[in-house]
Amino acid sequence: MTPLSAEKRLAREGALDARARAHAGGAGAARQAAGHVLEAMNAARACGTVSAYLAIRSEIDAMPLMLALSGLRIPVALPVIVGRGQPLGFRLWTPGAPLDPGPFGTSVPRDGAEVEPDILIVPMLAFDARCHRLGYGGGFYDRTIARLRSRGPVHAFGLAYAGQQMPRLPVEATDMQLDAVVTENGVIRPEQLADEALPG
User: What keyword terms does UniProt attach to this protein (predicted)?
Assistant: First the structure.
């Protein structure tokens, strides 16, 4: 194990505890965050198919966002784990659609058509002000974001509780920076740091 890998492992342990605390006290956070995601999409002029997720463990619930998108007739997809070391696949989802169990406690649409999303809503363990993300260590979203960005414009928005923010995360070359992180408190963009560093 490299020093950076060990640092990430320690960060994950702390992040799990922090997220659990945020989840326990986060009543209403998912609905508030959903509104901010729609604002972020409008600001970025992001449109097309949106990939979200069905929350597991103490992840912030993306269902309020998914229902809002469906109500606006915006196509929604869910990620599908294709295999170890592979990018994610995606299938269209609609409210009430039958689901099948997937790996790691996930659920996938049984009959949804395979699609390639234009916007990714990404769960996480933690994030920092530069919109770096700490995941579970499988690299699925990093590989997926890298592949989609190599093919054309794609927006990757993290979805998290505000309490999941850390001062600074350990980052490797394969870790993909997000375009923004959205919490119940609003939208965090990496360029805000540069703006704040400018003299008044």
Answer: ATP-binding, Ligase, Magnesium, Metal-binding, Nucleotide-binding
Average pLDDT, integer, range 161-187: 96
Query: Was 88 annotated as part of a binding site?
Result: no
CA dihedral 144, 149, 155, 156 (to 10 degrees): 30
Tell whether the model's pLDDT for residue 162 goes beyond 50.
Answer: yes
SS3 91: strand
Contact assessment for residue 101 and residue 75, using Cβ atoms and an 8 Å cutoff = no
How many separate domains does the chain show?
1
Q: Does the annotation flag 104 for ligand binding?
A: no
Q: Known binder of ligand: residue 31?
A: no
Residue 199 has pLDDT above 60, yes or no: no
> Can you give the residue range of the structural domain that contains 147?
3-197
pLDDT tens readout for residues 144-154: 999 999 999 99
| Residue 52 marked as a ligand binder | no
The CATH number of whichever domain residue 183 belongs to comes to 3.40.50.10420
Is this structure's pTM higher than 0.85? yes
- The answer to whether 48 is annotated as binding is no
Q: Taking a C-beta distance cutoff of 8 angstroms, is the pair 92, 75 a contact? A: yes
